[in-house]
Amino acid sequence: VLFNMSMQDLIDMGYLCAPTYIDASVIEQNEVPLNVSRSEFDMAKFDSMMESREEKIMKTIKYGETHSKSVLIFCSSVHQAEKFCKKVEYSAVVTAKTPPKERQRIIKGFKDHSIKTVFNVGVLTTGFDHPALDCIILLRPTRSIMLYVQMLGRGVRIAEGKTTCKIIDLTSTVKNMGRVETIRMVKEPGAL
User: What's the pLDDT tens digit per position in 72-112?
Assistant: First the structure.
């Protein structure tokens, strides 16, 4: 039996919390070149385009930290994550190269709030559960609906005292993809 439920259905039933969106875009996606396969954005070029926008990015990160208990930032590169982490107190970086014990230490610190902000590069999109997470900052664009839903899905878990998760978008991804709770699977007429 196959049954399709949207994120909005689960929010309405009380299983997930509703996100609050903040458009803080510093770049429009139509300005970002695509990769060679044209399936995703060229992250190296995107990263270099963001260099001149560092002041606005830091203000946005500080805003997220001031108004939230836990901030998860999706970055476009290890360089970008490490650069901003050096400027933010009580923060850490998780990448594919982070040793397992170090990753466990960071995640434990994130959950017990000794680490307030985690910059991650393509790691904490699936299999990561921190229900109290109440702020996600998109510092990497994507054209993948699946990746987009996975990233924002980290913030919609319910937790005691949590009423929403702020989604702060620096990349115009929400503007281009839509609110995650409105995404629906539909069968196209004539499709198998």
Answer: 999 999 999 999 999 999 999 999 999 999 999 999 999 99
Burial class of residue 131, CB neighbours in 10 A (0-12, 13-18, 19+): middle
pLDDT digits (tens, 9 = 90+) for 20-66: 999 999 999 999 999 999 899 999 999 999 999 999 999 999 999 99
The answer to whether the CB of 158 falls within 8 A of the CB of 186 is: no
Residue 6's SS3 state is coil
State how far the alpha carbon of 64 is from the alpha carbons of 42, 61, 69, 146, in Å.
26, 5, 9, 25
CB atoms within 10 A of CB 137: 28
Cα–Cα distance, 60 to 37 (Å, whole number): 32
Other beta carbons within 10 Å of 59:
11
| Residue with the two structure tokens 């994120």 | 7
pTM of the model: 0.93
